[in-house]
Amino acid sequence: MSSPSSQAIARHKFRYPIGDTYDGEWNNDGRKHGIGELTLVDGTKYTGQFQSGFCHGHGVAKFPDGSLYEGEFENGKYHGYGVFTRSDGMRFEGRFQSGRVDGEGRITFPDGSHGRPRQEGYFMGTELVERHRVNESVLKAQQALKMARNITI
């Protein structure tokens, strides 16, 4: 069972001295907790779940260069299943750990192809280390994307 300070208790907007803004739920400790939207002064915007001040759970992060991550977060980093789409349209669907690609996934290029040879299998960072079909991991990434997109504040 959660302690009272770890549960969302209030919702309001706050502007930080550096210019970042947060509109969402807070816990008794004064940390972002629950559902909210964080907009950084550089134009980065995160909409989703927070836990004890960090992006945690499902969420959508939009970056100033037009790239986008939709999926699961843990302690402020991409972690779990999700979809990262670069500004040029190249997309990775699969598993992330501690803020980086690490696990099964598939790359889709801007033309809709998966490359030749097919860029699908086990990735460590940008390197495909074992090529194999990963339909289940891609499905989980797409489900995480849908859950992240359905969050509203």
TrEMBL record:
Keywords: Cell projection, Repeat. This is MORN repeat-containing protein 4. It comes from the Eukaryota. Signal peptide: none annotated. It is found in: Cell projection. Gene3D superfamilies: Histone H3 K4-specific methyltransferase SET7/9 N-terminal domain. GO terms for biological process: response to axon injury. SMART domains: MORN. Its main location: other. Pfam families: MORN. InterPro entries: MORN, MORN4. GO terms for cellular component: cell projection.
